[in-house]
Amino acid sequence: MSHRITLAGYLGTVRYTGPVQGTSGTWLGVEWDDPKRGKHDGVKDALTSKYIEALHGSSSQEQVILGSSKGNIIVEAVNLDKIRGKLADLSRLREVSLDGLGVASYDPPGMIQRTSPSIRGLDLSKTLLPSWDVVASIACELPALTRLYPEIFSRNRLLPPTNAAIMESAFLNLTELQLNGTLLPWSEMQDATAAMPNLEIIEMGYNSLKYLHTSDEYPPIKKTVRVINLDSNACVVNHGKSLQRLIIPSNSIDAIPFPGQQQDFSSIKHISLSGNKIQTLRDVDALSSWCPGLEALTLSGNPLTSQAHARPFTISKIPTLVTLDGAEVEFSPGRHG
What is the mean pLDDT of residues 303-322? Predict the structure, then answer.
């Protein structure tokens, strides 16, 4: 045993000498120095009997095709058996995606929590779940759930919640909710998020929103919410007292009026207005009135940015800026004066 051999230019070490089930004669099990020379990892014809423990082979190194590459990218992966063993333990799962799987209902009460109690992120994109009540029933069994993502209800059309008790107990730890591409009205989002006491991030991109209606009929946005993403809608935003970050690119905004007495964005530190239709320096002047403590601003993709003096004017009008269009703002004497 452990004798070194050479064959056709390949070097190897004899790890086994003896019979092999289903064959005749004496066999040598060789661990080749070059893993490309070996045919398997010591298991003959997929039998359960392992004759040698090879350094190279399918148990320690495998070729894996990346699914997102459509077969174009092949990588070498090591110790996949160990990884498979961990994944087989559903109680360890932290992130779960049911994207496009056509899920239409949920398991009997208690089964989800017994099976996968540690889930923190859940993707329900393109499922067939009918209502917020059903989603809440699932979330009730996931005490660690903090994120429903990404584009979680994309192409879903959820009926409004009707069971207040379930809603109030389902999303106690949820901090991030993505409702991109759902065509969900702003008012229904307000209704659903009223039962999410620790919500911090709301994404409502690609929902064809035109105005963020507010009335006493619907609960206000939670004061815990600090980020709202309204990418690619057609919104008019006129409130956001507790917000720290507002993302409204590609909303066809062509002008920024000066704020009224009841309109308050003073808490906002970051705002993205890229890809809109803002044209004049007056709009920047108005923006500085909306957000007097603004630290980060994105204006790229607006006609305004093609003007030679747009950047220095913006910096002078918003002295609190730290970054503009992703570039650090240089301090100059008298800027804050």
Answer: 94
